[in-house]
Amino acid sequence: MPKAKAVAPSNIAIVKYWGKRDDRLNLPATSSISITLSKLKTEVSVSFDEKIQKDEVLVEGRPATENAYKRVVAFLDVIRSKTNLPLFARVESFSNFPVSSGLASSASTFAALTLAATKAACASFTLQELARIARLGSGSAPRSLLGGAVEAVAGVLDDGSDFEVRQILPQERVFFAVVVVVVDAKEKSVSSRDGMNLCKRTSPYYERWLEYNQGLVSTAKSALLNGDMQTVGEIAEASCFAMHACCLSANPPLLYFAEPTVSVIQEVFDMRKEGIQVYVTIDAGPHPVLILPFDFVPKAVERISNLKGVVRVIVERAGEGAKIL
Ligand code: 2P0
Fold first, then answer.
1. Distance from C-alpha of 50 to C-alpha of 46, rounded to nearest angstrom
2. Whole-number pLDDT of residue 185
3. φ and ψ at 208, to 5 degrees?
4. Which residues contact 119 (CB under 8 A, 6 or more apart)?
5. Ligand 1 pocket test target in 17, 27, 71 with most atoms within 8 Å of CB
6. Below-50 pLDDT ranges, the chain
7. If you take atom 20 of ligand 1, which residue's CA is the nearest one?
């Protein structure tokens, strides 16, 4: 019974991925840049088993929801076709952060699943082949294969064969902290996938958003390489707020922020006016993420922890990429 286990970290995008140029291949419309985190992780074990008649998927020890199950089975079908393995699999995933809290888990899950499933199938792929496989599960997953600051290069070819992941900085050279602020809010009601589709179909700003976001990539890379905190922070906010502006301009409008999200944004702006160099980014959910020099972490954490609706503050830094256990 071929079996393997892998672990992958979550990542937070500084230049966001929000939009696909090909739905079937799950190809991103723009490149994106993220920081691989050190603490928030998902462990996935995969065993292909000739004795089972269908795939079995457990998340945190319980059967996956119908949507999650279908997504994992579709991904396993890719692995089976690429490795010529005609067996069903038992997949188990555990995250060390509350999946139900709305913190992104698809990146860490599909990065770990890619490594575990290909290993269990006894197949060996290059990093870029693994990145293209992981992308089929979740567009943000390839970035979690590498540590530090990572670019997912969208590429231009129709078949996606020039999609790549590249490390911009190894984890020890990432010069800022990442603070995940968990706020009191209901689970997100519109998935990233559906949200991206809605924006593409209905937002008058969608094309402009893509053009603007792609334009941020090279400046962000230079700023990361030059240790330029201000530019990294400003670009993170620019990409985040342009993405959310695109969401708000969709029909029906897509609002991912909750009340405490707005309080945290306001507090970040206030802190900056007082000389505390802190920036904020928010994914397709209510939880803000701060980006700031290590020296400012204690002060910023104290200020943010006191806000109404903030339930947990996780101080993070850049970490290593996914690996087989
Ligand atoms: C990002 N997000 O760059 C952006 C910012 C959410 C907001 O990547 O459809 O769950 O599975 O490819 O990977 C979330 O997108 O979407 C995401 P699919 P995924 O991190």
1. 13
2. 79
3. -65, -40
4. 4, 6, 46, 324
5. 17
6. none
7. 13
Structure-block tokens of residue 82: 């690429």
What is the per-residue pLDDT for 105?
84
Rounded Cα gap, residues 253 and 262, in angstroms = 17
- Tell me if 284 CB under 6 Å of ligand 1: yes
Out of 75, 105, 138, 210, give the residue to mutate to test ligand 1, the one with the largest number of ligand atoms within 8 Å of its CB. Answer: 138
pLDDT at position 273 is: 98
How high is the pLDDT of residue 181?
A: 96
Confidence at residue 188, expressed as pLDDT on a 0 to 100 scale = 60
Residue 276: φ, ψ to 5°: -85, 115
What is the model's pLDDT at position 77? 97
